[in-house]
Amino acid sequence: MGLRTRGLAHNLEKFTIMNLLLRIGPAVPYGMQQLSNRTQMRQPLGGYMKLTSLTLVLSLAGSAVWAGEVAPKAVQYGEDGQVAASLTGVAGDAVNGALVAGTKSKGNCVACHQLTALADVPFHGEIGPSLDGAGDRWSAEELRGLVANAKMTFEGTMMPAFYKVDGFIRPGDAYTGDAGTEPLPPILTAQEIEDVVAFLATLKEE
After folding, report:
1. Model pTM?
2. Which of 151, 105, 92, 100 is nearest to 115 (CA)?
3. Looking at per-residue confidence, does 176 or 123 come out higher?
C-alpha cells in the first residue's frame, strides 16, 4: 500500500472513531472529553488513538451500568408475584432499607405493620401482619415482589405498590387539588426497593 493510500485509510479510521464518540457524547464525562482533546494536540498520533479507544470502552461500560436498572413496567413477576432478579444489580443496603421503611414519605412500613426492629418509630399499625421474622417467612425474591407490587401476590391487598407508575384506580393529589397524570413516579426507587428487601431479610424469628 502506498504512502498516500495508507494516509487516506488512517484518516477514514480516525473519522469513524470520532464519529462514534460524537454519537455517544452524553455518556462520556466532560472531563474525559477535554483530556482526549488535550492529548490529541500534545501526543503523537499513536498515543491519541490508544486514549480514544480507552475513552470509547469506558463510555460503553458506563452505558451498560445505567442500562442495568429495571424500569417499573419491565419488572418480571413470577406466577406467585415473586421477582427473581435484582432491580439494580447492586446489593441492597439493609441500614438504608431500615431508614426507608421507617420514613413516612418513603416506605412507611410501620403505618400498617408491627415491627420490633423499628420500635423507636411511633404509631405502628395493625392492618398488615407483623414483619418480625419476615426474613424467615419469605425469600428475597418474594420480598422483592411484595415491596415492588404486593397486588401481584395478594390481589385484594391494601398495601400500596411501591414500584409502579400507571394503572392506578384513583391517584391522589397530595392535597394540591390537582391529581397527577400517569405515568407517575414510583414511590421508591429501584435501589430503595433493594435496600428495603435487604433490611427485611435480616428480620429473623427469635
Report:
1. 0.66
2. 100
3. 123
